[in-house]
Design brief:
Helix content is 43%, strand content 18%. It is of the alpha/beta class. Bound molecules: adenosine-5'-triphosphate and magnesium ion.
């Protein structure tokens, strides 16, 4: 049985039918109400009470107060919902219900209220194409940033998306299904909307947007999908999109997701900002700068000239101490110019947004003055971008009151003298106050009631209030209006007439001010391109300044990025570890890699010695240099790097649903076929995730492959596999290094110094003891170690690991531990056997050959 719905509910159902995939916030009085499935879902997600509307039909319902809308909205958005906001538009008509309309649809990627946004990060909507040719487009509607990128593989697409960190995804139907587990993981928990390809194709790309790719470009569909989605949900925001830029992967130093994660660039492996590279180097003071720094680190340049230009700018600011100081005040006061501009573009700004815009534009002129006449090319270009906003600052200042009210319908928005009509109405209203005061005096005299008051109340309007004690003195022309506990309130014809005039004047002024404000706001749109340019300039200057501050504070030096292929770092430090330990506690180290010198550096040393720190520090210095920053080193000469590959640690990544070893091998495979002569490879304990011999064999083979690769990449390889140090005997460009330690009274002292040669032993047991492993366990470990060291392998080539306990236990047949030298000898002997022709040999010759071969084989096996 279905009960007939009330008119309001019929209206609800009709509107909801057009926004099926959204939660509908249905405004009813002071609340946004939700019904049916929406109510069930929202009450759960928001943790609010579920009630029911209309007891009989029992419609589930829940609601949130309108003034707290944004807080609830942001909660839903963060959980991946879309919300359609339906407002009451007009007073009830004949049918007795309000006309209602959806005013906007808010989605995770298209959200504008500050509560829902991270001021220092972007909020990207990503349009993706998970079929070849792969592509994505990223749009931040709060700042107007928009770019697209074509990718060769789904892996590359996943890497690009990982760096973008979109809040929401859209795709054309049929293009939204990733096939790799990484692709799938990216979409997990995120809203993905599929759009009809025909609808997107039919959507006319808005005119005036520069850079829209042509129909044969892989990004054609994703760029249009992003715009179409914006048009569907926030059409006003389309007007602020001026251009879409193409991002070409090859113009940036490439880092895949693993590199970004394991180098802990934006967050630590445990997911915190503190302890990341960004945390250690960020000295930006504006939201634009914070977002831009993140973007620069995510996509370091691969262009010697442009990198040098950034370094020039940082160098100039570093030396100009006074300029840095005088820039700091206006920078600290600078707000989010980009987001203010985008509010203006979308007709969302109120009077206070406009005065804030003015204040920031005024701040820009202070910044320009402080900057003076810079030499560096980037600084000059930034200065050009900042522009001159004096005229518009004057225009706003001469129009708006200071500070204006938050809304433009409340009156008092404009300064006296701006508009004659507003002034006239204001005079009337202020004059009205005087009239009321006069009336009060007059009525007191007339009635003889000393305590008589003229007052105003929002519900009842103007009144004359008389306390109960004097009620008998009230004249006949007073009309009773309201009774209070201790007083009565009256109205008189004169007061009634006055009330009408005041109300008309108030309404008239509000209407006039609204009209004026909207006109002002509209006229300000012409400055938007200049404001966006200035916001970009401020962001860039902020990052350059941040690099200079960083360098000044920590003694960073200017790196030279050149067209060569060598990496030379003198007294390099790890930016994050140094920040945590303090400058004096950190021991600097050198690093030299080159295709013709050391291209494979094998680093051994005890646990906790600093191997991982050292190899990461080299990668981070390279990255910072390419991003335009100075680096924690006395000297750094870096041949342009095209890619940093990492394979660090064997941390289990259960969230990926793959075993440690699989992940490791997959990533290693990607490294092996992705290197060039400009690639830096950082390997930390590759092979650790499986049994010792398998692991060692793989580590060896990987190191050898990279060393022998005709691409000649530069490789830093930290390992606990001591046997790997033998690789230098067969790989001409491999060199051993170790972290120096000293033993003193049974303790080890970490010197943190990287020296040539391999480490003498692994010291793992000492470290275990320091870490508090029980003495008995430590002792047992020492025994086993002795066993191992005296006879590492038995006759069958199996490990004697179990020592005294081995009796009865059979070791698994491990992959044979190989020595390349031995293998080479064997091969040579075999070759000789194959070639020799016994029928031509004398018996003596044959015997001698046999003795020689046997000798060689025996020698090779040791
Ligand atoms: N150059 C250095 N100067 C001062 N302290 C350092 C330096 N390098 C590393 N350390 C300190 O040593 C700690 C351990 O370093 P790291 O993790 O690099 O060691 P490791 O050799 O990789 O150890 P494991 O073999 O256990 O992985 C760091 O957390 C840091 O506190
Ligand atoms: Mg380590």
């Amino acid at each position: 049985m279905t009960l007939p719905l009330t008119p309001a509910m019929r209206q609800y159902v009709e509107i909801k039918s057009r926004y099926r995939d959204c939660i509908l916030f249905f405004r009813m009085g002071d609340f946004y109400e939700m019904f049916f499935e929406d109510a069930l879902r929202a009450s759960r997600l928001l943790d609010i009470a579920l009630t029911s509307r209309d007891k009989e039909s029992n419609i589930p319902m829940c609601g949130v107060p309108h003034h707290a809308r944004n807080a609830y909205l942001s909660k839903l958005i963060r959980q991946g919902c879309k919300v359609a906001i339906c407002e009451q538009i007009e007073e009830p008509g004949q049918k007795g219900i309000f006309r209602r309309e959806v005013s906007e649809v808010v989605t995770p990627g298209l959200v504008f209220s500050e509560e829902c946004l991270d001021a220092r990060g972007n909020n990207f909507l990503a349009a993706v194409r998970f079929v070849a040719p792969f592509a994505c487009a990223a749009l931040d509607a709060t700042t107007g940033e928009f770019f697209h990128e074509a990718c060769d593989t789904e892996e590359a697409l996943a890497d690009a998306l990982f760096r973008i960190a979109p809040a929401e995804f859209v795709a054309l139907e049929g293009e939204g299904n990733p096939t790799t587990s990484r692709g799938k993981r990216l979409l997990e928990g995120k809203l993905l909307t599929l759009l009809s390809p025909s609808a997107v194709a039919a959507f006319p790309a808005p005119p005036g947007i520069e850079g829209i790719p042509s129909a044969d470009h892989p990004s054609w569909g994703v760029v249009r999908a992003a715009l179409y989605y914006l048009f569907l949900h926030q059409p006003a925001a389309l007007s602020e999109i001026g251009r879409v830029a193409e991002r070409e992967g090859r113009r940036y130093l490439a880092m895949d997701e693993t590199a970004v994660r394991t180098l802990e660039i934006f967050s630590t492996l445990s997911g915190e900002r503190k302890g990341s590279l960004l945390w250690a180097v960020d000295r930006t003071r504006t939201p634009m700068g914070a977002r831009m720094l993140r973007a620069w680190l995510a996509a370091p340049l691969q262009d010697v000239e442009r990198i040098g230009e950034r370094h020039d700018a940082v160098g100039e600011l570093l030396e100009a101490h006074a300029i840095r100081k005088s820039l700091s005040t206006p920078f600290d006061a600078m707000g989010d110019l980009s987001r203010l501009a985008s509010r203006l573009a979308q007709d969302r700004s109120g009077p206070r947004d406009v005065t804030a815009l003015r204040d920031h534009l005024e701040g820009i002129s202070a910044i320009k003055t402080a900057l003076g006449e810079p030499y560096a090319k980037r600084l000059q270009s930034v200065k050009g971008l900042l522009g001159d906003h004096a005229a518009v600052v004057d225009r706003i200042s001469s129009a708006l009151a200071d500070p204006p009210p938050p809304g433009y319908r409340e009156g008092g928005v404009f300064r006296p003298g701006y508009d004659a009509q507003v002034d006239e109405l204001t005079r009337l209203l202020t004059h009205g106050k005087e009239m009321l005061a006069e009336m009060e005096v007059r009525e007191r005299q007339r009635t003889g009631i000393g305590g008589l008051k003229v007052g105003y109340n929002r519900v009842f309007g103007y009144y004359i209030e008389v306390t109960r004690a004097h009620i008998d003195k009230v004249p006949a022309d007073y009309i009773r209006k309201q009774t209070l506990a201790n007083a009565e309130r009256f109205i008189t014809p004169e007061l009634k007439e006055f009330e009408g005039r005041v109300l008309r004047a108030q309404e008239g002024r509000a209407a006039r001010e609204e009209e004026l404000f909207l006109a002002l706001r509209d006229s300000l749109k012409e400055i938007l391109p200049a404001v966006y340019a200035a916001a970009g300039g401020i962001g860039e200057l902020d990052v350059l300044l941040s690099f200079a501050e960083l360098a000044a504070e920590n003694g960073y030096g200017r790196p030279q990025v050149n067209g060569g292929r060598e990496i030379l770092i003198e007294n390099g430090r790890h930016p994050v570890v140094e920040k945590i330990l303090g400058k004096h506690a950190f021991v600097p180290n050198d690093c030299r890699l080159s295709p013709d010198g050391t291209r494979l550096a094998v680093l051994t040393g005890p646990n906790m010695a600093g191997k991982s720190t050292y190899i990461r520090q080299a990668a981070l210095i390279v990255l910072l240099a390419h991003a335009g920053s100075f680096v924690p080193a006395d000297r750094a000469e870096i041949g342009l790097v095209d890619r940093i590959f990492t394979r660090i640690g064997a941390s289990d990544d259960l969230s990926r649903g793959e075993s440690t070893f699989m992940v490791e091998m997959r990533e290693t495979a990607r490294i092996l076929d992705g290197v060039t002569d400009r690639t830096l490879v950082v390997l930390d304990e590759v092979g650790r995730g499986t049994s010792t011999y398998d692991g060692l064999s793989i580590a060896w083979a990987v190191a050898e492959h990279l060393h022998d690769s005709p691409s000649r990449p530069k490789v830093l390889f930290a390992t606990h596999f001591h046997e790997l140090t033998d690789i230098v005997s067969t790989c001409a460009n491999a060199r051993n290094f170790h972290v120096a330690v000293r033993e003193w009274q049974g303790e080890i002292i970490f010197l943190r110094r990287i020296d040539e040669g391999s480490a003498s032993k692994s010291y793992g047991i000492q470290v275990a003891r320091l870490a508090g492993l029980p003495a008995s366990v430590v002792e047992r470990a020492r025994d086993i170690l002795k066993n191992l060291e005296s006879a590492e392998y038995n006759e069958d080539g199996l490990p004697t690991l179990a020592g005294a306990r081995a009796a009865g236990g059979s070791a698994n047949a491990q992959m044979e531990l190989f020595s390349r030298r031995a293998r080479k000898d064997e091969d040579a002997v075999l070759e000789q056997v194959r070639r020799c022709e016994p029928e031509r040999l004398s018996p003596l010759d044959a015997l001698m050959r046999l003795a020689e071969w046997k000798g060689r084989l025996e020698k090779g096996a040791t």
